[in-house]
Design a protein that fits this description.
- This protein is α+β, with helices and mostly antiparallel strands and about 100 residues long.
- It has one domain: Alpha-Beta Plaits, CATH 3.30.70.330.
- Helices cover about 30% and strands about 35% of the residues.
- It has 3 helices and 6 strands, in the order αβαβαββββ.
- The strands form 2 sheets. It has a 4-stranded antiparallel β-sheet with strand order 1-2-6-3. Strands 4-5 form a two-stranded antiparallel ribbon.
- The protein starts with a helix and ends in a 12-residue tail after the last strand.
- The mean pLDDT is about 90.
- Belongs to the universal ribosomal protein uL23 family.
- Keywords: Ribonucleoprotein, Ribosomal protein, RNA-binding, rRNA-binding.
- This is LSU ribosomal protein L23p (L23Ae).
Length: about 100
């Protein structure tokens, strides 16, 4: 797979309360990914960038919300997120500290 493509798969971590709960209970991390990313691509990208072994990947399409501003109706973008489970005993440090 193209290395340029692998670097563009992960858009960033998705940090929410739900993501924190999932991370603590089952050793999973949540990422925003490109809208056309596949499970194998996400797995390769996480393994390459964070140097961990990925156990499983689940991908979810999130629909954008409809929002109103006065009399106008708008729509937020649809996006995609991935739940990545790493092998037992391994962690991902987003801060980059030791």
């Amino acid at each position: 797979m193209n290395e340029q493509r692998i670097m563009n798969i992960l858009l960033g971590p998705h940090i929410t309360e739900k993501a924190a709960i999932v991370g603590e209970s089952s050793n999973q991390y949540v990422f925003q990914v490109a809208s056309n990313a596949t499970k194998p691509e996400v797995k390769q990208a996480v393994e390459k960038l964070f140097e961990v072994e990925v156990d499983a990947v689940r991908v979810v399409n999130v629909k954008g919300k409809t929002k109103r501003t006065g009399s106008r109706v708008g729509h937020r973008k649809n996006w995609r997120k991935a739940y990545v489970r790493v092998k037992t005993g391994q962690t991902i440090d987003f801060a980059g500290g030791e």
